[in-house]
Amino acid sequence: MVLEVRNLSKKFGDLVAVDGISFSVNRGEIFGFLGPNGAGKTTTLRMLTGIIKPDSGSIKLLGYDMKKDPIRVKERIGVVPENANPYIDMTAWQNMMITCGLYDLTGREAEEKSAEVLKDFGLYDRRDQKVKGFSKGMKQRLVLSMALVHDPEFLFLDEPTSGLDVRSSLIIVDKLKELSEEDKTIFLTTHNMWEAEKLCERIAIMNRGRIITVNRPDVLRKTTEVLRRVEILFDKKISPEDLQGYIKVDEVEGEKVIVECEDLDPVLTGISSFIMDSKGKVKVRSFNTVTPSLEEVFLKISEG
């Protein structure tokens, strides 16, 4: 593992922002970090990147203790805060050169690495234009270029596609997948459920300062499948009264009947009996169980 967090805590006055959390991240993994506003995600991220110090607990990142060797850690990571902004009165290229200087990249090496990442994010042809004329999506792509120019082993991203246009979001998502394939490790905080499900191998859900669960998206979905949603499509409109005594109906949409249940067997038995008793007057066109979305999983777990 490349990140190991143990019993991490942080208080601000009487407010416990982070309450003794522990988790680990594997090399080459895209690790999602989800939670409602005020859950403690940003405070956790600021501790992981060395911006603030924890009250207690430990952070071991890329083999270094964050408390003992913060400089060595910061040299090897890239960070994109949620509200990161490049210098808007400078060109994209000038922003890249300033960033290169922070990591002791100079001359030809700085120019080659800057050109490479700007091309990756579709900004190379706009490199000599001032950033004040860039869209929000272009600015975010530039910030990501600046975070990647020194080829970090570990990348921290806080809501990287929040509020962006579709093109910028897709470019960023594709680049993150490519980085993971190159064995880079990515720590991603996001409210975008589609993004989390598409990118993340594992997801941690945080609420009220604590980590509630850490698991793969597909496993998290299965944990909420105790209450199943069943959609039955008949060949004609059916009322709840028609099915009384067979199954308990939760919702009717035209020919579709929706049932929420813990056990499928009684529903199957009830529908079969209803069809037989109708003596061919009613037929079932389809019968589907609906898998919960990651957003439904997130809401169910965080509210629990």
Structure, briefly:
This protein is an alpha/beta fold and 304 residues long. It has 10 helices and 14 strands. Strand 1 and strand 2 (15-25) form a beta hairpin.
What can you tell me about this protein's structure?
By secondary structure, this protein is α/β, with parallel strands linked by helices. It has 2 domains: 3-222; 224-303. It is built from 10 helices and 14 strands. It has a 6-stranded mixed sheet, with helices on both faces. It has a 4-stranded antiparallel sheet with strand order 2-1-4-5. The chain has a 4-stranded antiparallel sheet with strand order 12-13-11-14, covered by helices on one side. A hairpin with a 2-residue loop joins β12 (251-253) and β13. The radius of gyration is 25 Å and the shape is elongated. The mean pLDDT is 89.
Strand and helix map with partners:
Elements lengths: L2 E10 L2 E11 L4 E5 L6 H8 L7 E6 L2 E2 L4 H6 L1 E4 L11 H11 L4 H14 L15 H13 L5 E5 L7 H16 L3 E5 L3 H7 L2 E6 L2 E6 L1 H7 L4 E7 L16 E3 L2 E6 L2 H14 L6 E7 L3 H10 L1
Parallel strand pairs: 3-8, 3-9, 6-7, 7-8
Antiparallel strand pairs: 1-2, 1-4, 4-5, 9-10, 11-13, 11-14, 12-13
Protein name: ATP-binding protein
Organism: Methanothermobacter thermautotrophicus (Methanobacterium thermoformicicum)
GO molecular function: ATP binding; ATP hydrolysis activity
